[in-house]
Amino acid sequence: MTTPAAGTIVTLRVRREKPPYGWFLGLDGEEAGPEVLLPYGEAEGARPAEGEDVEVFLFHDDKGRLAATRRKPLLTLGQMGRLRMADFHPRFGCFLEMGIGRQLLLPIKELGDRRERWPQEGDELHVVMKHDKEGRMLARLAKIEDFQAVAFRAPSSWHHEQKDAWVTETFRDGVFVLVEGGVLGFGALGYIPDAAMTRPLRLGEKVSGRVTQVREDGRVTLSMKPPKEKGRLEDADRLLAFLRERPGGAMPYSDESPADVIQRRFGLSKSAFKRAVGKLMKEGLVTQEGSWTKLTEAGAAGAEGADGADAQEGAPQL
């Protein structure tokens, strides 16, 4: 019998009970062979009897000794899974919950150099359990080949649908994600380009995005931004509200304003700004004069009407 390793689920025979510690289990088929302790606190369920075979998960205790538990782990040796980050140590890395009351270490060297992209407590990381040089359990970030073994091809019906996904890898021009599959299974592979983000994303973060493309290979491209038409309506409403709060209902920004000024002031691209202002102009709510955009009488009257409506809405009913 091969000696079982940490991170594996095995069936071992109970050799003896030794209070106040627990039960000693045989690690091989020999009566006098090596043993592993199943502590009382780890023996969930019915008490095992001498000579009984029990299924246990093996791990190293706080003193580095191989020990056993009857608790079921979320991950075993060689498997990939999504584990929640419980804590972070600046020297060691991320400590991940694995379902047995102990945590699995993801070394800090796995996180890369961009600290702003490092995970935070509560984020969920896709990892594979492996061993370090001493045979202790350790995690590594899942790679594309790990996902390919469990991911499915996204159906074409996903196009334009809103989906949840977890960031699995970060790059300078975007992030790889695993898109939640629901009843379809583990998930589908996806990508969110930087240009389609509304904010920077970090490793392990859960994000909601709209599927903008289902590729022939079954992978998808997502965007955190709303469709252009919806975005145009929201941007127009925001600019109108901004103008109504300005003295004289005017602002020193127009189609002539530089793109970097528009981006800095409103967080919009020049084209998005022009689409929003164009909508307001078409509706007769604003007009442009040189580098200025101003409310028309109709645009200003709308603000007064809204205030009046709010007042009526808040008035007591007779």
Please tell me about this protein's structure:
This is MarR family transcriptional regulator. Residues 160-225 form the S1 motif domain. Belongs to the CvfB family. Helix content is 19%, strand content 35%. The chain is α+β, with helices and mostly antiparallel strands. The chain is elongated, with a radius of gyration of 29 Å. Helix 2 (228-245) crosses helix 4 (270-282). A hairpin with a 5-residue loop joins strand 4 and strand 5. The protein is built from five helices and 18 strands. The protein has four domains: 9-69, Beta Barrel (OB fold (Dihydrolipoamide Acetyltransferase, E2P)); 80-142, Beta Barrel (OB fold (Dihydrolipoamide Acetyltransferase, E2P)), CATH 2.40.50; 150-223, Beta Barrel (OB fold (Dihydrolipoamide Acetyltransferase, E2P)); 228-303, Arc Repressor Mutant, subunit A (Orthogonal Bundle), CATH 1.10.10.10. The relative contact order is 0.08. Residues 305-318 have low confidence and may be disordered. The strands form four sheets. It has a five-stranded antiparallel β-sheet, with no helix packed on it. It has a five-stranded antiparallel β-sheet with strand order 8-7-6-9-10, with no helix packed on it.
Search tags:
OB fold (Dihydrolipoamide Acetyltransferase, E2P); 35% strand; alpha+beta; nucleic acid binding; CvfB_WH; disordered C terminus; CvfB_S1_2nd; MarR family transcriptional regulator; 4 domains; 19% helix; 318 residues; S1_domain; 5-stranded antiparallel sheet
